[in-house]
Amino acid sequence: MELGRVNRLEIDRDTPPGLFLLDEEGNDVLLPGKQIPESFEIGDMLDVFVYLDNEERLIATSEMPYIQLEEFGWLKVNQVTRHGAFLDLGIEKDLFVPFNEQARPMQEGKSYLIYMFLDDKTDRLVGTSKINKYLSNENLTVAEFDEVDIIVSHMTDIGVNVIINQMHKGLVYDDQVFQDIRVGDIMTGYIKKIRPGNKIDVSFQQIGFRNIEPNAAYILKELEGNDGFLGLNDKSSPEVIKQLVQMSKKNFKKAIGSLYKEKRITIKEDGIYLVGGDSE
User: Cα–Cα distances in Å, from 254 out to 229, 236, 251, 258, 261?
Assistant: First the structure.
């Protein structure tokens, strides 16, 4: 059974303190009475989170934590003491973040991006807001156009920094952000490009056939910012298209074609109109 993770364990016996659960190697752990399901049978399998209680005893809970061991998540500070900060983990016991693991002093009531690890010296689950050392792009596990899980970590002058699949660092450039984004958001993203040095460009929009979908999203943004009209169509010259929307005529035609099929735009001789736009 793994400390700090959700384990699937077998109900072995029912006792006054609660149910004792077994892993495949015969190790047992207590699921306290208040955590017991309404109906169960000996031999049933239960998904439980295993951690150490306040007396450093192994214990299980049917409550699901916000993050597990070696995961990142946005957690709120419940209390700050002379020992460190205690953050809401979503279970009965808070996650401890000592002062030397705080990127900046934590304040009660505020939320921080946290990584949970196992302290080698104490065998306790501990949190840290010094997250960079737990992210690496040295050996990438993703490829261009992959769908990935992302957490928004922070905003910069050029875009939105994200954590990819709980492992890698990525960036969504400002001109690729077409929705309201907040730090801590958990979203689906798409690997747009891997640049030299294993730097990863990410898109919030599904890429589909390479750059078609991001280009379509960009055109939608331009339409919305121009009263629903752009003086371009599939007969416009490549030079004009590049000047106005910064893309090739080929990609432009594919983008407006997909938008037209989705009934997001209409195409007329003088240009393209956003369906429902002011100028249509």
Answer: 18, 14, 5, 6, 11
| Number of separate domains in the chain | 4
- Beta strand pairing call for 168-173 and 199-203: parallel
Helix, strand, coil in percent for the chain, rounding step 5? 15, 40, 45
**Is position 56 within any domain?**
yes
Q: Is residue 3 pLDDT above 60, yes or no?
A: yes
Select the more confidently predicted residue: 179 or 28. Answer: 28
- Within a domain: residue 33? yes
Q: What is the pTM of this model?
A: 0.71
Q: Which of 14, 42, 61 is the last residue of a domain?
A: 61
> Domain for residue 138, yes or no?
no
Specify the CATH number for the domain of residue 270: 1.10.10.10
Cα(51)–Cα(249) distance, integer angstroms: 57
Single residue among 81, 106, 132 that ends a domain in this structure? 132
- The 10s digit of each residue's pLDDT in 239-273 is 999 888 888 888 889 889 888 888 889 999 999 99
For 62, phi and psi rounded to 5 degrees? -85, -10
Tokens 């990525």 sit at which residue?
170
Rama region for 128: left / alpha / beta (φ>0; ψ in -120 to 50; rest): beta
Among the listed residues 163, 244, 230, 149, the one whose alpha carbon sits nearest the alpha carbon of residue 200: 163
Give the contacts of 142 (CB within 8 A, at least 6 positions apart): 148, 164, 165, 168, 191, 194, 200
Rounded Cα distance, 70 and 131, in Å: 11
* Cα distance between the two ends of the chain: 62
